[in-house]
Specification:
Elements (H helix, E strand, L loop, with lengths): L3 E5 L3 H12 L8 E5 L35 H8 L10 H18 L3 E4 L5 E5 L4 E6 L2 E5 L1 E4 L18 E2 L5 H4 L7 E4 L3 H13 L5 E4 L8 E2 L12 H6 L8 H14 L14 H10 L1 H22 L4 H10 L1 H8 L2 E2 H12 L3 E4 L2 E7 L1 E6 L4 E4 L1 E4 L13 H8 L18 E4 L3 E8 L5 H4 L5 H18 L1
Parallel strand pairs: 1-2, 1-7, 2-3, 7-19, 8-17, 9-10, 9-17, 10-13, 11-12
Antiparallel strand pairs: 4-5, 5-6, 14-15, 15-16, 18-19
The structure holds flavin-adenine dinucleotide.
Flavin-adenine dinucleotide binds next to helix 1 and helix 15.
Length: 470
C-alpha cells in the first residue's frame, strides 16, 4: 500500500491532485499527504498568485472551474457577492482555488502543507521509496506527485542580472513599481498584454515600446457560444490507435472532417500581418469566425494531448509543425475589450510595436537593434518572453539535483519524458513507480501541460491510475 504521499507544488495542478486524492472513495485516514510550495503560493501557484486586478484570466468565467461543475467558480463568486464578469482577474480565481485548498486542509487532519520548496529527492529502488529534502528536513514517501508548473523565465538575450532589466515581471505591482525613463517590453504574448495593461491603466505610462521577433499578438475572443464536436472525438480517435500508435494522417483526416462540419473558415489560418494593429482589426472584423476557431481549439486541446502520446517521434515533429502554430495562435485569446484597448493605445501612438527584434546591447541604456538595422534605446527593459521549456536552463536546486541523480532527463519536446500513466521515465532506473509528473514539466509527453481545464482533467486520470496500482 502506497500510503505516504507527497505533492510538490500547490498551484492548480497540485491542488487538483490533492482534491482528486481526497475525494476518491478509497481515501481514508491511513493515508498521509504532505504538500509543498512557497507559503504565499500554497493553493494558488504562480499564475494565480496575488497580483494586479488588471491581469485577467484568459478563459471565460463560465468555462473556468476547478471542479467538473463548470459553474462552480461562478457560484463561488455569487456566494461572495461578486457579479461574475466574463473574464475575472487571475487574483480572484486564485482566491477561489485557495479557498478550496484551505477547505481540504481543514477537513483532513492527515494532510499537511509545508511552506517551503523541495530541493532534492533520493530514490531507493529496493523499497521504491522517495526521500524528499525540504528546508533541511528529509521525509520519506511511497508516492510523489511532481507538479512544479512552468519553468523559470527564459532569457533569450542573456540579460539576467543587468541593471534595469526585469527578468520575471510578476507580481507586477512589485516588479514594475519604478517606471522612470523610457520603457520597453520584450515579447508580444499574454504576459506582454498583462504588462501593457498594468503600465497604461495603473501607471498612466504615455509611451511604451513592445519589441518582438514576429510582432504577433494573441487572438481575440468575443463570446460564449458553444460548439459540439461530432467527428473529432475520443471514441473515433481510439479506433485509429493500432499497436499502441496512431498515424498523423488519420488524425488530420478526422480533424479536417470536423472543420468542414463546423463550417470553420480555414482561410483564417496562418494569415500574416505587417503590424499588430492590422491583426487586431482583422480579428475584430472576423470575430465570429475567429471565436469559432478558438472554441474548436478549446474543445479539442485535451484530445490533442491524448493523441500526442500515441504519435511516433517523426509524427510528433510533424505535428509540432502542422498543428502547434494553430493551437498556439488560438489557444489563449485575449478578451475583446482588452484587444480594443490595445488597438486604441496603438492608434494613439502610446504603444509602439517593433518586430524583427534582433539583438540587445547594454550601455547604461538598452540598445535594441532590428534585422532591418533600426535602433531603439530604452532605460528599462521588461522580459515578457515567458518561461523556458528546457529543464537544464532552470537554476532551481530540485532540477539540478534530479538531473545529477539521473532521475530525470530533458525531453527534445520540452520538459521531461513521462509514461502514458504520467510516471517519470528516469534515464537510470526506467519508469519510476508512483513518481508522477503533471503539467508543463510533462509537456514532452502530453504536449500541453498548462491550462486550468487540462490540469483538472488530467489529474483525474493520474489519481485513477494511482488507486488502481497502489
Ligand atoms: C503569467 C501566466 C498567466 C497564465 N494565465 C492563465 C490563464 O489565464 N488561464 C489558464 O488556464 N492558464 C493560465 N496560465 C497557465 C498556467 O500556468 C496554468 O493554467 C496553471 O496555473 C498551471 O498550474 P500548475 O499547478 O501546473 O503550475 P503553477 O500554478 O505554476 O504551480 C506550480 C507550483 O509549484 C511550485 N514549485 C515549483 N518547484 C517547487 C519545488 N521544488 N518545491 C515545491 N514547490 C515547487 C511553484 O512555486 C508553483 O506554485 C498562465 C500562466 C502564466 C505563467
Amino acid at each position: 500500500m502506497k500510503k505516504r504521499i507527497a505533492i510538490i507544488g500547490a498551484g492548480i495542478g497540485g491542488t487538483s491532485i490533492l482534491r482528486r486524492l481526497v475525494e476518491h472513495e478509497k481515501f481514508n485516514t491511513e493515508y498521509s499527504v504532505d504538500i509543498y510550495d512557497k507559503e504565499a503560493l500554497l493553493g494558488r501557484g504562480f499564475a494565480f498568485k496575488h497580483d494586479s486586478k488588471h491581469l485577467l484570466i484568459n478563459t471565460i468565467t463560465k468555462e473556468t472551474s476547478l471542479k467538473e461543475d463548470l459553474n462552480d467558480y461562478s457560484k463561488w463568486l455569487n456566494s461572495k457577492g461578486i457579479e461574475p464578469s466574463t473574464h475575472t482577474s487571475r487574483d480572484l480565481f486564485g482566491e477561489y482555488v485557495h479557498h478550496i485548498f484551505r477547505d481540504i486542509l481543514s477537513n483532513h487532519k492527515n494532510i499537511h502543507a509545508f511552506g517551503d520548496f523541495v530541493d532534492d529527492i533520493i530514490y531507493d529502488p529496493q523499497n521504491t521509496t522517495y526521500s524528499l529534502k525540504s528546508a533541511g528536513v528529509t521525509r520519506t514517501y511511497d508516492t510523489v506527485f511532481f507538479v512544479p508548473g512552468t519553468l523559470e523565465y527564459s532569457d533569450p538575450y542573456d540579460l539576467k542580472g543587468t541593471k534595469n532589466f526585469i527578468h520575471n515581471p510578476y507580481p507586477v505591482p512589485v516588479k514594475l513599481e519604478d517606471t522612470k525613463g523610457t520603457i520597453g517590453i520584450i515579447g508580444s504574448g499574454l504576459s506582454s498584454i498583462d504588462i501593457i495593461r498594468y503600465l497604461v491603466l495603473e501607471k498612466d505610462i504615455k509611451k511604451l515600446y513592445v519589441f518582438s521577433r514576429h510582432g504577433e499578438l494573441p487572438a481575440v475572443r468575443s463570446g460564449e457560444n458553444d460548439l459540439e464536436l461530432k467527428y473529432f472525438i475520443k471514441e473515433n480517435i481510439e479506433k485509429y490507435i493500432k499497436n499502441d500508435h496512431i498515424s498523423l494522417g488519420a488524425v488530420t483526416r478526422l480533424f479536417n472532417k470536423e472543420l468542414r462540419y463546423q463550417n470553420i473558415d480555414t482561410d483564417l489560418f496562418g494569415v500574416e500581418f505587417s503590424h499588430p494593429k492590422d491583426q487586431i482589426e482583422f480579428n475584430i472584423k472576423n470575430i465570429e469566425a475567429v471565436t469559432k476557431i478558438e472554441l474548436l481549439i478549446l474543445k479539442t486541446e485535451n484530445l490533442f494531448t491524448y493523441i500526442y502520446m500515441y504519435l511516433n517521434q517523426k509524427d510528433k515533429t510533424r505535428y509540432l509543425k502542422l498543428y502547434h502554430p494553430l493551437i498556439e495562435q488560438y489557444h489563449s485569446p485575449m478578451p475583446l475589450h482588452v484587444a480594443k484597448g490595445i488597438l486604441e493605445w496603438t492608434l494613439e501612438g502610446r504603444l509602439i510595436f517593433v518586430d524583427e527584434m534582433d539583438s540587445v546591447e547594454t550601455d547604461n541604456k538598452f540598445i535594441i537593434k532590428t534585422q532591418d538595422g533600426e535602433t531603439y534605446e530604452v532605460d528599462k527593459l521588461i522580459n515578457a518572453t515567458g518561461p523556458t521549456q528546457n529543464i537544464k536552463e532552470d537554476s532551481r536546486p530540485i532540477f539540478k539535483n534530479l538531473l545529477n541523480r539521473m532521475l530525470i532527463t530533458d525531453s527534445e519536446f520540452g520538459g521531461i519524458p513521462v509514461s502514458r500513466n504520467f510516471e517519470i521515465i528516469s534515464p537510470r532506473h526506467g519508469v519510476l513507480p508512483h513518481f508522477y509528473a503533471i503539467g508543463e514539466i510533462a509537456r514532452g509527453t502530453m504536449y500541453r501541460g498548462d491550462g486550468v481545464a487540462i490540469l483538472v482533467h488530467k489529474s483525474k486520470e493520474i489519481i485513477t491510475h494511482f488507486y488502481e496500482t497502489e
